[in-house]
Specification:
Chain A has 523 residues and is of the alpha/beta class. Chain A contains 21 helices and eleven strands. Mean pLDDT of chain A is 74; it is low at 1-22, 27-37, 68-136, 446-453 and 455-470. The chains are: A alpha/beta (523), B alpha/beta (415). The interface between A and B is large, with 69 and 69 residues.
């Protein structure tokens, strides 16, 4: 308003100022005002887009309502926190809104502005992060491209809704949510295990499947009504699929598509079941044996000290074969890490087989690595085509330390886990775990699905115990504390420089050959 | 005397401060008349504390191994030596100090000559253990000193037995330390007081440099619990710098949880991650701040003793070209070399935090070894900067500061 009037009042003055010589200060002022007047004056009203105008309104409304109600650290933290998502321009329009203390209405209005501007979710997170909507505000901008892990309550609600879902037209075989539940609760871990379970479930589904009517091509129908919905259900509702699952699923779709058109359903079913059986047998079981043989040849007769991390089916098998079948004597150091603490299962398996073991957590790795370790064996969830290894979080740290101490690192991985993706670091492709796992520091937990067990125990009447336990945790109330976030990753990427050799069923290869292998396999 | 039970993540500063207080009261209350007595007294205190668990070094006490205590004592010893080497303010005559009189006489002639003598004698006494073979050897060394005034009188004094009997080798001091010096007490007390006030202002001085190193928009990674690092970050946040902190939880002790809570309460955007995710997250980190239990110096070293797991963090940072900054007070500067590698100043504590005892009851699992070290040794190549209360230095420079803090004779004082 004042802006608009200023140039108009200025113009006649400006002419006077040009001719006469007022005091220097006035001249300066007039000069400054004169400058825009000299140019072709655009309309003084700034061209705000609709969204920006709304944001401005929001800001004005919020600044009236906020008063002194800004939790100092809270809002300043919210405003200033680095937005790695790259929406730095966002913070300019929105700081006042972050200070607004009035609840859900502001939150929702701000959210709609956010949607309108189509910015990153981070702005929205910071704005309504009074802990009111738990889980949403605690998103970490670095990982906003990854799906959020399911909270236990969500799972229960979802399960409750399944039963009603089945009564509708789209029938879902009960085996599907059963398996899905195992995935979500981390009861079933590991690439091979998940893949086998998936193929077994598909086998079950195929056996109970009847093609609709003779005219339609059942191949398309299988794909459309059986395979795809199940797989999508698992991936979106339960847990993002692993590369092993993905490759097996592609194989299955290919098998279905390559059936002959004129086949009867019974014959077709037989073929499909056989090929799935063959896939599991060849690419998982036999591959495991071959890997065990190749890598086992690298273990010396006596005196080796082998370091392993977490739990890997392939690695366990090769160590057991070396100890029990080849009768080699060696020591094993089992390195474990939170949150899953899978190394305990490995420890139990190896110790019961009579192998002398040492068990440490990741922090003690430096202490042990420098002395006595002769080789490192690691498992993998997937191999990227540039030779880097996607594996359980913590594997990269082990490989890094081994590399800096010049200890050879062998990664055991079947070829069906090779993925034609290229990944440069651990952030672009990963999976978020349950953040409560970070807060819960009880070392007596006996398994990865402990939180689920605790929850169900609590419902069953062991509630007092679990709530007591919960109070002991330093971060038990992390959801209510502003500025505090917890991050739990499931995977990390080991760069190919750290890997000495990759043991596959076709032999021990350098990491650079993975791309060749992919090409040979026709991937 | 303090008890030696070790708690992970205890702050070094209170121990150091209380050592300084203790020294002040002991040194103030005890009767000592010359520098040698004072130094022997201090050495005795050091051995006592090392026996309980401070002082650092191998063999000594079990458990604590807190080198900060020894460092404080070494500093005071250095101050005492410094004062003793300086010319006395007044000329004191005394009976027992015939040599002292002679020494004082020569000293009185010119202060520079006194300074020259002290340099000469300090050169001769540079490796006192080697001269402690016997008193005769002693005499031979002295006669070779070339300063005539000292010889005749000092021969009366070499029979001064060093009062402490616990040390394996008898410590002998340059002859002028045995001169009675009444002015020594106030200056030594003043030095102790300086030490105490340095410890009190430690965090203030360190935090003054916070703004130099922490800037807007940075993502800083830190490991486990450290009071120094926590105050450093809070100081930067108080000056309105907006940054994010990622805290590694530091299992099995979970110091990181406490740290994160405290930082979040100060308004800093904090994220807690598992230690296993360190390498994964390092691609996005701008800077790593590490705490130090002790900063080891000898010759060109500059390595750190830090909480177990920090070596991995430092390695991951190096791999990703992320600068590693250590924040530590000067009292943590230890004149020792990491001869034992990862075992330097390290302890293996109970594995109860690694695996639950209930699980260990399984007969199969009882055959399994567990290891739970407290510290890591980080070699100096992985450290880019050490921020102390007197400024920031690169690890390869730290050894120069040694000469200003401790006297070379005292380096291995408490082993």
């Amino acid at each position: 308003m004042s802006d608009q009037s200023a140039p108009s009042s200025c113009t006649p003055d400006e002419k006077n100022a040009a001719t006469s010589a007022p005091s220097a200060k006035n001249a300066e002022k007039k000069e400054k005002k004169a400058k825009p007047a000299d140019l072709v004056i655009p309309p003084k009203k700034p061209k705000l887009s609709k969204a920006e105008r709304r944001a401005l309104q929001e800001a004005q409304r919020a600044s009236k309502a906020a008063g002194g109600g800004e939790g100092g650290g809270k809002s300043s933290g919210g405003r200033g926190a680095v937005d790695i998502g790259g929406t730095g321009g966002d913070s300019g329009a929105l700081p006042a809104t972050s200070g607004g203390g009035d609840g859900p209405t502001k939150g929702s209005r701000a959210k709609s502005v956010n949607d309108e501007e189509k910015k990153d979710t981070v702005g929205g997170d910071e704005r309504d992060s009074r802990g009111r909507v738990s889980g949403e505000d605690k998103t970490i901008s670095l990982f906003s491209h990854l799906p959020r892990p399911k909270a236990p309550s969500e799972i229960l609600n979802h399960l409750a809704s399944i039963s009603s879902y089945n009564l509708q037209s789209n029938f879902m075989h009960p085996a599907i949510p059963t398996l899905g539940h195992l995935y979500t609760t981390h009861s079933l871990l590991g690439g091979n295990a998940r893949c086998r379970a998936m193929l077994q479930t598909f086998a079950l589904l195929l056996q109970s499947y009847t093609p609709p009517s003779a005219s339609r091509d059942f191949r398309h129908d299988i794909d459309h009504s059986l395979l795809k919905p199940a797989f999508q259900y698992w991936t979106t509702q339960c847990r993002p699929h692993s590369v092993s699952m993905g490759n097996a699923f592609s194989f299955l779709k290919l098998a279905v598509a390559s059936l002959e058109r004129e086949l009867e359903w019974d014959a077709a079913r037989e073929i499909l079941l056989e090929s799935m059986e063959a896939y599991v047998t060849e690419r998982i079981e036999y591959a495991g044996k071959a890997i065990s043989r190749h890598a086992g040849s690298k273990i010396q007769e006596h005196g080796d000290v082998v370091l392993i991390f977490g739990k890997s089916e392939v690695i366990n098998r090769l160590l057991l074969d070396a100890a029990l079948v080849d009768k080699k004597s060696f020591r094993v150091i089992v390195v474990d890490a939170r949150p899953l603490l899978e190394g305990r299962d490995t420890l139990a398996i190896l110790a019961r087989a009579g192998i002398s073991c040492t068990y440490i957590l990741l922090n003690a790795l430096t202490y042990l690595m420098m002395g006595e370790v002769t080789k490192v064996f690691l498992g993998a969830s997937a191999l990227m085509s540039n030779g880097s290894v996607l594996s359980r979080v913590g594997t990269a740290c082990v490989a890094l330390l081994a590399n800096s101490n010049h200890i050879p690192v062998l990664v055991g991985c079947e070829t069906y886990k090779i993925c034609n993706r290229v990944q440069l670091e651990s952030i672009t492709g990963n999976e978020l775990g349950d953040p409560e796992e970070v807060a819960c520091t009880d070392c007596a937990r006996v398994g990865p699905s402990n939180r689920w067990n605790e929850m169900f125990d609590g419902r069953g009447g062991g509630g007092e115990e679990t709530s007591e336990k919960k109070e002991k945790y330093v971060l038990a109330d992390w959801k209510d504390k502003p500025n505090l976030k917890l991050l739990s990753l499931m995977y990390d990427l080991t760069p190919s420089d750290f890997v000495t050799g990759i043991v596959t069923e076709v032999g021990i290869l350098p990491p650079s050959s993975v791309a060749v292998l992919l090409r040979e396999m026709g991937g | 005397m303090r008890s030696g039970t070790y708690r992970y993540g205890t702050e070094r500063l209170p121990a150091a401060a209380r050592t300084a207080d203790l020294l002040r009261s002991i040194v103030g209350a005890t009767r000592w008349t010359n520098a040698a007595q004072l130094l022997t007294l201090l050495r005795g205190i050091g051995n006592e504390l090392a026996g309980i668990g401070g002082g650092g070094g191998n063999g000594g006490g079990s458990g604590n191994r807190d080198p900060a205590i020894g460092n404080v004592i070494r500093r005071v010893m250095y101050a005492a030596r410094d004062e003793a080497d300086r010319a006395p303010v007044d000329d004191d005559d005394d009976d027992g100090g015939g040599g002292g009189g002679g020494g004082g006489g020569t000293k009185n002639s010119s202060s520079t000559r006194g300074g020259g003598e002290s340099f000469l004698s300090s050169m001769l006494w540079a490796h006192p253990r080697q001269t402690a073979v016997g008193a005769s050897h002693h005499r031979r060394m002295r006669s070779g000193s070339g300063s005539v005034g000292m010889i005749s009188e000092s021969s009366e004094h070499h029979h001064y037995p060093p009062p402490s009997t616990t040390t394996s080798s008898t410590q002998v001091y340059p002859p002028h330390y045995y001169a009675r010096r009444d002015d020594l007490r106030p200056s030594v007390m003043e030095a102790i007081q300086e030490m105490i006030s340095e410890l009190e202002d430690l965090h203030k001085n360190i935090n003054e440099q916070a703004l130099q190193h922490i800037h807007n928009g940075e993502i800083i990674l830190t490991y486990a619990l450290s009071r120094t690092v926590e105050l450093f970050l809070k100081a930067a946040a108080a000056k309105k710098r907006k940054f994010q902190v990622i805290v590694c939880e530091g299992s099995p002790h979970f110091g990181g949880h406490v740290m994160a809570r405290s930082l979040a309460e100060a308004g800093i955007d904090t994220t807690v991650i598992h230690d296993a995710a360190t390498f994964a997250i390092m691609a996005r980190v701008n800077k790593v701040l590490l705490p130090a239990h002790a900063v080891l110096v000898s010759l060109a070293n500059g390595g750190l003793i830090a909480p177990s797991g920090s070596n991995m963090v430092a390695l991951a940072a190096k791999q990703n070209s992320v600068p590693v900054v250590t924040v530590a007070g000067m009292f943590k500067l230890c004149p020792m070399y990491p001869h034992e590698g990862q075992d330097t100043l390290n302890d293996l504590i109970s594995p109860s935090t690694v695996i639950d005892y209930r699980l260990m009851g399984d007969p199969v699992l009882s055959e399994v070894e567990f290891a739970n070290p407290v510290h890591d040794y980080i070699p100096p190549q992985l450290i880019d900067l050490i921020v102390t209360n007197i400024g920031g230095f690169q690890p390869s420079y730290i050894y120069r500061l040694l000469a200003e803090c401790y006297h070379s004779d005292d380096w291995e004082a408490f082993e």
